Amino acid sequence: MSQSADSARPADAASLGTEADGEPYAWEGDDDHVIFWMLSLTPTQRLAALQGFVDSFMVLQNDRPAQV
Amino acid sequence: MIAPLRFDGILKALVDHGVEFILVGGVAAVLEGAPLSTLDVDVVFLRRDENLPPLLDALRALNARYADPAGRHIVPDADKLAALRIHRLVTSLGALDVMETIGHGLSYADLLGDTQVMEVAGVKVRVLGLETIILSKEQANRDKDRATLHILRRTLQMKQGPPGQAG
Question: What is this structure's pTM?
Fold first, then answer.
């Protein structure tokens, strides 16, 4: 999923000019990598990838202690 | 506790009941190859009298109720399906939006020309093409739509790239 791309950004990514320049996404190398990977999958595999992301999100949400 | 979300189960219920629909929105974009995430299933249904009973049966099988901020338990029925154009539902398998149109009034008939039937998790689903997904999100123009446009456009660009790349 596209959200994971940010975690792979190097520490000096800001110096390449992204958010500071007003561009919401300028780290297109990572976007392309994830898109290439998605396009290599079958539709069923793409849905499974989305389901896996959502399942992880649900686990994190449901394990989070209730806010007081 | 957040209810579970099963994309394949929602699609299977609609297909098994013979509902005429087009999968749109985030799940359609993912099936088209866009690396996005979403927490609901969006469909545009064929607004014809004969499509309403199977739709109602499918929604009952999914234990659908309207997503009501006041917490009231309001379930879909024939009158509501005939009268309302957007049904924002919570089901036993997750959130489901059933719509008559998307964007600036794009109906089932308007969208049909840019769809393809995909076999997904054992069911054949009619999925909206990426170009029209982008168009509908440009027309809707909400923050959440604009936030996905870069990835959608880039995915379309890469799908349309030279032979041997991806697609």
Answer: 0.83
Strand partners, B6: none
CA dihedral for B81, B23, A31, B140, sign (positive or negative): negative
So what's the ipTM on this one?
Answer: 0.91
Write the residue in B31, B121, B155 that is nearest to A35 by C-beta: B155
Mean pLDDT of chain B: 94
Angle formed at CA B101 by CA B97 and CA B103, multiple of 5 degrees: 100
The CA distance from B17 to B93, in Å, is 16
pLDDT at A4: 40
Residue A7 pLDDT? 40
CB pairs under 8 A between A and B: 87
Tell me if B121 and A47 make a contact (CB, 8 A cut-off): yes
Residue type, B2: I
Cα gap A58→B84, rounded to integer Å: 31
**How many angstroms separate the CA of residue A11 from the nearest CA in chain B?**
23
Q: pLDDT means per 10 residues in chain A (68 residues)?
A: 43 42 56 93 97 90 64
Parallel, antiparallel or unpaired: strands B94-99 and B86-91: antiparallel
Pairing relation of β-strands B40-45 and B94-99? parallel
